[in-house]
Fold these 2 entries.
Entry 1:
Amino acid sequence: MTEIDVLLPADPVDVAKLFAEHHLGLVRLALLMVGDQATAEDVVQEAFARTHVGRRRLRDPDRALAYIRSAVLNGCRSVLRRRSVVFRRAEPYEPPIWSAESAVMLSEDRREVLAGLRDLPRRQREALVLRYYLDLSVGEIADAMRISGSSVRSTISRGLAALGRRLGAES
Amino acid sequence: MIEQRLRDALGAAADIDPATVRPLRAAPRRHRMRYVAIPAALVAAVAIFAAARLLPAQEQPMTFVGMSAPEPGEIRVFLCRKPDTLPACRHTAGDRARIAAKLDTFPQVAGYRFIDQAEAYRMFLRYAKGELRDVVRVSDMPESFRVRLKLGADGTPVVRALREVPGVLLAALG
């Protein structure tokens, strides 16, 4: 450790390490939310950039990953909000992973599940993706979505029920 | 059952090739407009400074881009800004009162009016066009006095004297 290392306070959050370990996973999470890889990458980059800038202000550095996840979700919501405004009076936006080109890569069953998921309310969709794609615990989902643990449980339960109804109706 | 189908579908949909993910890029600059406004303010200040220095000794009437047309028999006194971009021009807290007190000593002066940044900006908006309206902000505008001279009075000695008062960026006949 050099003299400068001793004099300068260490960064409370190692953003570079978080980036190396979680960047790809978060891009995939954002991809599931917004539907196209380029937008997902932008959202995740913005989340990491914000975390890097505000890393010294984080009250609990151990929760930096939860903060980034939350920022990614917020970024995805902003993207979807902007799209809904732009396309409100135009043709519905069809993101690439739901599109016909991508559909050939997915089986019929998977496409049905994803279409059903896409039609769920925003909060249910987010909770299901965090639970069944990232395998996060209820507490981690609560942190990322900034809602209580009991809300997470009830949201997941309602989301699964709604998805089951949609899939049942389709099949 | 539904959970398993969901896991399977999500895993397949999110299956992107890591090699296709772009590396982290330099973040876009935030507050872009602020960076644009600073050169605009600098340009405005330099323009006023240059005008003051390049004015002929006889203090000919002048106008500024983006400012309302001057009235005949009027002197405009621009105050140093806080903070100012020109090292030669130092703003201090008492500038306004000091300049007003100085104006009171001239027998040629019939009256004067102080124009703050907000009013200067409103005048600016009346005359400015295009991108200039977007980059210049209220805080970029200089404060000034508009001095009305008595009928037939010679404003040249007033202008010369005002230029020596600390806190005056520019004094010129309108």
Entry 2:
Amino acid sequence: MGDVKKEFVQLLANYGHIGFTFVAAIVIGMGGGIYLDQKVFDGRTSPWFTFIGLALGIAAGYKTLFEVIWRDKKAADQQKADAEKDHED
Amino acid sequence: MEHPILFISIILEKLGLPVPHGPVGHTFLEKLCEPYMTYTWLVMAFLFLVARLTLGNLEMIPGKGQNFWELVIGGMDDFFADNMGREMADKFFPMIATFALYIAVANLIGLIPGFMSPTSSLNTTLALTLIVWFSHHLIGFREHGLSYYKHFMGPVWWLVPLLLPIEIISNLARLLSLSIRLFGNIMAKETLLAILFMLAGGFFAPLPIMILGVLVSVVQAMVFVLLTVVYFAQAKEHAH
């Protein structure tokens, strides 16, 4: 495998999972909300926990998205610091 | 839809073992003879035998076989060390490297007619995911003790009621996304190939999908391993 192709696969691995993780977070959040509404409180609180769960799920999705960005930023900063150190030497 | 021809299932049937015709068997023996189980064993045997046959004795000047394995293992080792540090990479290398090799081979084996990918069954991927999920919490508890709960609390105390559910949801979403992504990608590839073979196999219609299938197989194995490494590293580092 060439360097370009290797990098391509690594980029795909890095960012290819974002979409699915986002959806999974929303599904878990809203599913939990619906479960609370329908099963635990027997529909008495409907639809409030569904909405709260949906909102928390979307927030959790954004959190995972930001985590990827923060990780990238940290790696980039590290690289920059290393490069500067090399430059000084 | 036409039933795919799986040669291990046919051999087992000829031997008189009960191979289930639906997706799941009922008795213990039927469960053992399910295609994804038999092909998991095939992949395990393949990895074991190939490593055994190509490696032989380790030598200072590597031959062909040893050269290949040094490239594979060395590449993975560097990748782990880059992402989670040398100490953790040394500790968890056997586990994660086994996952990587197993998932890659299990994904790729489905491209050959007569074989199926064990990873195209949710049972296999969920098992792998559960191992990763429990071990990343275990690493967290071993590293931080009971104060591992601070990982789920966010930076300031008045944000706890908001951030605790978010952290729990995003942690459970890992379980879902890790297992279903691998399963979905590989099953989609298998199903698409089967349909195209059935419709226009004589005109090489599945060929472009097979090329994409190689890419998807490698990328999905890589995604699984990368996320495993990231989760382990996150469980180990200090809470924000």
